[in-house]
């Protein structure tokens, strides 16, 4: 999980909103929706000030007469995210923030959409606010749905606003048959609120299971090479190879599923040894 640069900071959310709504053909609808412009400006400023640690202080403005929540979320769907909508260029600019088009939330799947950090169904004035829109794969977007809590200790990590020190916080337990389970273990010096939010992040996006399944596949793909290394050389050479894998994965992302997996395999190398030994004698 890597921090992203807050997108489109030189473009005001209320101007994006105006550009989107003025493309409606129904001029009465345009004039009614434009009454929301100032609320979008104020709510977007407040959101940037309070997210994520003071999220409980965020109060959305009341919408003017004639406008309901769905009108604003429709602006996102039909004018911002739609292929030919006037807001699509902003949508694409946010999507392109993701390195190598990989979802920055899970770090595994491809970016296909934008995730509203505060859901548009509950916070419609933030429907097209760029800092509320995170590049995401479809699964991360769907798994979170509208579950975001507004209690600052129970919100997932915000990739534009949270600063997470570059130290290991994702770890694994290694079972006797090399079953891998992921958990959060932050350094003691870290704020306990950040630890809770990292745990929430894994829960919200259902990442424990996803990471365990990738780890299990990585091990299955490596067993042949590991046993060959042990047969042709020895256990110490294999351990060095795992350390190399770990360092390489950590260099790219200290807390990717792969970095945590190899960290765990190196620190539980006795289990790897016994597992491979049993495998060899049972062949
Ligand atoms: Zn994802």
Using brief descriptors, characterize the structure shown.
2 domains; two-stranded antiparallel sheet; binds zinc ion; elongated; single chain; 49% helix; 283 residues; mainly alpha
Question: Could you please describe the fold and organization of this structure?
Answer:
The protein has 283 residues and is mainly α. It has eleven helices and four strands; from the N terminus they run H-H-H-H-H-E-E-H-E-E-H-H-H-H-H. It has helices at 13-21, 27-34, 37-50, 69-80, 88-95, 138-144, 192-204, 207-232, 235-252, 257-267, 269-281; strands at residues 113-116, 133-136, 170-174, 180-184. A two-stranded antiparallel sheet has the order 1-2. Strands 3-4 form a two-stranded antiparallel sheet. The chain is elongated, with a radius of gyration of 23 Å. The mean pLDDT is 92.
């Amino acid at each position: 999980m890597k921090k992203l640069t807050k997108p489109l900071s030189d473009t005001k959310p209320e101007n994006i909103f105006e550009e989107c709504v003025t493309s409606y053909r129904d001029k009465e609808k345009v004039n009614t929706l434009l009454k929301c412009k100032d609320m979008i400006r104020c709510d977007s400023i407040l959101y940037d000030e309070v997210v994520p640690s003071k999220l409980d202080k965020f109060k959305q403005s009341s919408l003017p007469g004639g406008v309901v929540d769905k009108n604003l979320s429709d602006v996102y769907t039909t004018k911002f995210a739609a292929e030919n909508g006037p807001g699509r260029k902003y949508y694409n600019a946010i999507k392109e923030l993701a390195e190598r088009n990989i979802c920055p939330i899970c770090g595994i799947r491809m970016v296909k959409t934008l995730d509203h950090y505060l859901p548009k169904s509950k916070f419609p004035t933030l429907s097209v606010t760029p800092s509320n829109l995170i590049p995401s794969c479809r699964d991360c977007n769907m798994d979170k749905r509208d579950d975001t809590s507004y209690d600052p200790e129970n919100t997932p990590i915000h990739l534009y606003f949270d600063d997470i020190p570059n130290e290991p916080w994702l770890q694994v337990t290694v079972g006797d048959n090399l079953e891998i389970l992921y958990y959060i273990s932050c350094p003691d010096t870290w704020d306990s609120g950040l630890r809770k939010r990292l745990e929430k992040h894994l829960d919200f996006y259902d990442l424990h299971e996803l990471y365990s399944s990738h780890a299990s596949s990585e091990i299955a793909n490596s067993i042949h090479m590991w046993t060959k290394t042990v047969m042709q050389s020895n256990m110490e050479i294999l351990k060095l190879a795992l350390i190399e894998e770990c360092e390489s994965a950590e260099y790219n992302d200290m807390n990717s599923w792969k970095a945590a997996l190899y960290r765990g395999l190196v620190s539980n190398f006795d289990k790897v040894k016994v597992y491979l030994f049993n495998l060899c004698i049972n062949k």
